[in-house]
Recover the amino acids of this structure.
């Protein structure tokens, strides 16, 4: 269970790190599956000469160790606490994509600051202030991630800059790209934190947390993360009902839309 202090940090910073959320043997089996997938693309575990691109993305494999990784008790309890019990899809796995970043001085071309999109409508990806369909962004460290090994960059507090951008667009929300660009500009003054740690750590992030990949990768080993969304059923109301205690994801949205004073 997350402590009150951790929930307070989530409200303030927009993320909380669950250290050791996925056991080491499960992580080792996930790595084996990822390498098997990379091998089919000619990128081989034991042969750094084949690590020619700064980033290779694969869809997160399903089943086996990934089903175990996505369903640990500590993760499910934290999702209940942050999103609200019964409000999110208990996926039998991890999902999303796995960007594998290799030691390289090259610009990977995908390291801009952004928020994630949350739902598809009219053939495009969108996001609205109620965070329709997205309860969290989860960042699973599937290898150790060192500060010089292309960690994901986070902007603590940036989740509070985003509701004011999205709210004027109402239920329909905004197209993802202009929303992400405005979120990046609005949060430029925020500090940067690095999603570093050990393999098996999971960062649970508010859906509006502004983040970015980083480069160069000056570590020795490929860095693997998964970065799925945790699906929300429906969307959050932008006003709390009387007597209701909103879950922290919703509370952060309400707080940032509340008039100052
Ligand atoms: O690879 C990373 O560190 C983050 C990538 C990312 O934010 C994305 O693909 O949306």
């Amino acid at each position: 269970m997350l402590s009150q202090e951790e929930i307070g940090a989530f409200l303030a910073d927009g993320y909380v790190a669950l250290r050791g959320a996925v056991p080491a043997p499960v992580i080792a089996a996930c790595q084996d599956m990822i390498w098997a997938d990379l091998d089919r693309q000619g990128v081989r575990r034991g042969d750094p000469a084949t690590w020619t691109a700064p980033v290779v993305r694969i869809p997160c494999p399903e089943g086996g160790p990934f089903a175990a990784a996505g369903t640990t008790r500590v993760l499910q309890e934290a999702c209940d606490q942050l999103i609200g019990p019964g409000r999110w899809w208990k996926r039998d796995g991890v999902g999303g994509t796995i960007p594998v970043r290799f030691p390289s001085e090259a610009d990977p071309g995908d390291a801009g600051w952004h928020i994630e999109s949350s739902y598809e409508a009219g053939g495009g990806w969108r996001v609205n202030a109620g965070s329709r369909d997205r309860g969290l962004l989860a960042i699973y460290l599937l290898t150790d991630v060192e500060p010089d090994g292309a960690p994901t960059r986070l902007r603590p507090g940036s989740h509070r800059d985003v509701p004011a951008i999205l709210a004027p667009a109402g239920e329909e929300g905004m197209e993802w790209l202009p929303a992400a660009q405005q979120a990046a500009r609005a949060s430029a003054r925020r500090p940067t934190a690095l999603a570093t740690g050990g393999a098996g750590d999971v960062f649970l992030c508010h859906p509006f947390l502004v983040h970015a990949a980083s480069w160069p990768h000056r570590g020795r080993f490929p860095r693997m993360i998964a970065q799925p969304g945790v699906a929300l059923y429906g969307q959050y109301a932008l006003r709390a009902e009387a007597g209701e205690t909103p879950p922290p994801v919703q509370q952060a949205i309400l707080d940032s839309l509340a008039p100052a004073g």
